[in-house]
């Protein structure tokens, strides 16, 4: 069955960096686009970034553009999100999700990122 | 660019039907048949319930149905059950230059 397991979250100071990872299994990872989606405490969902199956096409939300970098390693069935210059408003649970053309059909359980001094 | 607009809360009694609306613009909901709906129970990851406006993934109850008219999409839950109590989010592809997908504001469904 499809499994997505995020890791790498934690407490970081404003201005700091963090790298999230998402380990995928149960499907042919290299066939699918992938996304990172986040949810601030008590708030709604916010799409963060998207990467094509080959990694050649990448999109970012304006709120993270220039600070976050999405990447993938198809040989390792893994998705990554490098987060730099973190701000308090980046505090959220970060989900990785398998992406079809029009939707995110499977989600991981999420990893919490807390940005605080 | 704003999120898609959903009612903050909707409630119903067991067995009743409820409908959640999701209002966007011609650049997202109205322009594409790429509306999805997600169910999220507290502390859990979202689950895809409807995709491409009205399609149900395998395993999702046929009590859940989706539709769209103009710039507004809707999710209907018929035969409401206790386990349907959750948050629901719509999402749409968008032609906005600043993002690829946009989520709704979310609706808390309460089963009375």
Radius of gyration of chain B: 13 Å
Strand content of chain B: 35-45%
Greatest interface and its participating residue counts: A-B, 21 and 24 residues
Q: Which blocks of ≥5 consecutive residues of chain A have pLDDT under 50?
A: none
How many β strands of chain B by DSSP? Answer: 9
The helicity of chain A comes to under 10%
The number of helical elements of chain B comes to 0
How does the helix and strand content of chain A classify structurally?
mainly beta
Oligomer kind: heterodimer
Terminal residue distance of chain B: 35 Å
Q: What is the molecular shape of chain A?
A: globular
Number of strand elements of chain A: 11
Helix content of chain B: under 10%
Characterize the main sheet of chain A: 7 strands, mixed
Q: How would you sum up the global shape of chain B?
A: globular
Question: Main sheet of chain B, how many strands, which sense, barrel?
Answer: 6 strands, mixed
What class do helices, strands and sheet pairing of chain B give? mainly beta
Which value, in Å, is the CA radius of gyration of chain A?
13 Å
Q: Helical segment tally of chain A?
A: 0
Low-confidence stretches of chain B: none
Describe this entry's structure for a reader.
The complex is a heterodimer of chains A (117) and B (112). Chain A is 0% helix and 53% strand. With 117 residues, chain A is an all-beta fold. In chain A, strands 2, 4, 5, 6, 9, 10 and 11 form a seven-stranded mixed β-sheet that branches. In chain A, strands 1-3-8-7 form a four-stranded antiparallel β-sheet, with no helix packed on it. Chain A is globular and about 40 Å long. The model of chain A has no long low-confidence stretch (mean pLDDT 96). Chain B has strands at residues 9-12, 18-23, 35-40, 47-50, 64-69, 72-77, 86-93, 101-103, 107-111. In chain B, strands 1, 3, 4, 7, 8 and 9 form a six-stranded mixed β-sheet that branches. The N and C termini of chain B lie far apart (35 Å). Chains A and B meet through strand 5 and strand 10 of A and strand 7 and strand 8 of B.
């Amino acid at each position: 069955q499809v499994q997505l397991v995020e890791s790498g979250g934690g407490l970081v100071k404003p201005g700091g960096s963090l790298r999230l990872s998402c380990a995928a299994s149960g499907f042919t990872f290299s066939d699918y686009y992938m996304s990172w989606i986040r949810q601030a405490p008590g708030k709604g969902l916010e799409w963060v970034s998207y990467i094509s199956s080959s990694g050649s096409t990448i999109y970012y939300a304006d709120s993270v553009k220039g600070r976050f970098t999405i990447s993938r390693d198809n040989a390792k069935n893994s998705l990554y999100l490098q987060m730099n210059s973190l701000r308090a408003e980046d505090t959220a649970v970060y989900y990785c999700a398998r992406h079809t053309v029009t939707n995110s059909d499977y989600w991981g359980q999420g990893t919490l990122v807390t940005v605080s001094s | 660019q704003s999120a898609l607009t959903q009612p903050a809360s909707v409630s119903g009694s067991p067995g009743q039907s409820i409908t959640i609306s999701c209002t966007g613009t011609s650049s997202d909901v109205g322009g594409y048949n790429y509306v999805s709906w997600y169910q999220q129970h507290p502390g859990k990851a979202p689950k895809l319930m409807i995709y491409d406006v009205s399609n149900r993934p395998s395993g999702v109850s046929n009590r859940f149905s989706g539709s769209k008219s103009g710039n507004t999409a809707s999710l209907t839950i018929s035969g409401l059950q206790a386990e349907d109590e959750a948050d629901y989010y719509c999402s749409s592809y968008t032609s906005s230059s600043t993002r690829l997908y946009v989520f709704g504001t979310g609706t808390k469904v309460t089963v009375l």
